[in-house]
Amino acid sequence: MDKVRRILVYVCKERAAPRRAQFVQSVTGHFTDSGEDEVEVSCTLEKNQFILYKGDRGRGVPLKRPAFCPIKHLSATDAAAIPLDIQQRGVDVGVAILLQTANQRVLLTRRAKELRIFPNVWVPPGGHVELDETLLGAGLRELHEETGLKLEPEQVSPTVLGLWESVFPPMLSRGLPQRHHVVVYMLLHSSLTHLQLQPSLRPSPAEVSACLWADSRLVRAIVSAVDGDDASVQLDDLPSSISVSQVSADGALTESSMPLAVFTSRAPASGPDVERVSTGTKFALELWLRSLDVPDL
């Protein structure tokens, strides 16, 4: 098992020493005794260990899992059927960057269809945290590698919006868990508008197949399409198609339009997945909308 190259999640309660979270253990469930899917925690990255703990109430960030989280519903029989090398992986740490422009848009990217995990799904730029990186450093590196946008740490004031417990496949109906992450969603503000940033986009076609600068109206529609729910979607008189930048095999961008329905699609309970905004991204975008309602101090 690879014990060296990955940053893993550690959990602790009360004054106990941190211990490594197990692959088949729900990290969210570790901090609640009543089955809730959201809990407030504090986090720190120390000596290549991402440590989660219950801090002072009101000073942490939300940690959430979907109600259909496979780890939450994993039976002892299912857990025993997971290959040993996967069981021994632990819980990986990822970071995703919500880049907010000066005119209050955020950058979303569609994962390349060739990727093994969540192909063709819309997410913010992001990826794994590497050894000896900070969360911000990892986020800025992934932002640059995936989109070509290069920001320096001194140019941004990062805010951790929340943590998402992500499992792939996302539902037991699609197979036993193969990957288990806690994703740190980090908000960064740019002093430039999306029109000023657009010429600097140089997406990696191996990872990104399309890009979108989403405004708050579109984001509200996206987050209203709650996965696992059948409530109506808040369309707010949005047009039936959305402008996106398609990424060609050589990395060139071409403007095109996509049906709004793609962005308000829900994760299907069974069968093949569909092109959609990921469940964790909806969680982060909802937190972003809330941040817009807070006046500058």
Automatic annotation (TrEMBL):
PROSITE patterns, alphabetized: NUDIX (PS51462)
EC number(s) on file? 3.6.1.62
**GO terms under cellular component:** cytosol; peroxisome
SUPFAM superfamilies this protein is in? Nudix
Question: Which one GO biological process term can you cite for this protein?
Answer: NAD+ catabolic process
Tell me the cofactors it needs. Answer: Mg(2+); Mn(2+)
At the top of the EC hierarchy, this enzyme's class is hydrolase
Task: Please give the CDD domains that the UniProt record associates with this protein.
Answer: NUDIX_Nudt17
The record ties this protein, via Gene3D superfamilies, to: Nucleoside Triphosphate Pyrophosphohydrolase
Q: Which reaction does it catalyse?
A: a 5'-end (N(7)-methyl 5'-triphosphoguanosine)-ribonucleoside in mRNA + H2O = N(7)-methyl-GDP + a 5'-end phospho-ribonucleoside in mRNA + 2 H(+)
Alphabetical list of InterPro entries matching this protein: NAD-cap_RNA_hydrolase_NudC, NUDIX_hydrolase-like_dom_sf, NUDIX_hydrolase_dom, Nudt17_dom
What are this entry's molecular-function GO terms? 5'-(N(7)-methylguanosine 5'-triphospho)-[mRNA] hydrolase activity; metal ion binding; NADH pyrophosphatase activity
**Described function:** Acts as a decapping enzyme capable of hydrolyzing monomethylated capped RNAs (in vitro). Hydrolyzes monomethylated capped RNA after alpha and beta phosphates to form N(7)-methyl-GDP. Shows low activity towards unmethylated capped RNA.
UniProt lists the family membership as follows: Belongs to the Nudix hydrolase family.
Please state what the protein is called: m7GpppN-mRNA hydrolase NUDT17
